[in-house]
Design goal:
single chain, alpha+beta, OB fold (Dihydrolipoamide Acetyltransferase, E2P), three-stranded antiparallel beta sheet, 5 helices, 12 strands, globular
């Protein structure tokens, strides 16, 4: 679904408040910034990841992002253990999340450690699209992607 030029894939799960998308695959989840988040953040300038194997509680940083407009955490949507980071991808192209937030621009892969108790705020499908439409209007966001 495209709304105000913001892409909201309906096949993903979202933590709307933290602007994180989640793609579950077995016991591992791939996480990244939503199109709305990368637009608000601006062009990435630097990215530092927590180490693989690190256990992170819900809401705490999985990575720190520096951009032209902002420096801050990429928060965990649920408690988890980091199993992979996309450091090589971002070393090749720091703008990966600005160009392809839902594919090559993924940030971390994690194994949830308390998902059953911490998944109540996660949304998918039509509910995610409707809640993002509301958030986009509220924040007055018009998504833009970096191009080559």
């Amino acid at each position: 679904m495209i709304f105000y030029a913001c892409d909201i894939p309906e096949d993903l799960t979202y933590d709307i408040e933290r602007d994180v998308w989640i793609r579950f695959d077995g016991d591992v989840a791939t996480l990244g910034m939503t199109d709305v988040a990368q637009t608000r953040c601006g062009k990435f300038a630097a990215l530092s990841f927590r180490e693989v194997g690190k256990k992170v509680v819900q809401g705490k940083a999985l990575a720190t992002i520096e951009s032209a407009k902002w420096v801050g955490p990429f928060p965990a949507p649920f408690s988890c253990e980091i199993v992979a980071v996309n450091e090589e991808g971002f070393e090749r192209n720091i703008l990966l999340a600005n160009k392809e937030p839902y594919t090559d621009g993924w940030l971390v892969k994690v194994r949830p450690t308390n998902l059953e108790n911490e998944r109540g705020h996660l949304v998918t499908g039509d509910e995610a699209v409707e809640r993002y439409k509301e958030r986009i209007r509220e924040l007055k966001v018009n998504c833009l992607r970096c191009i080559d």
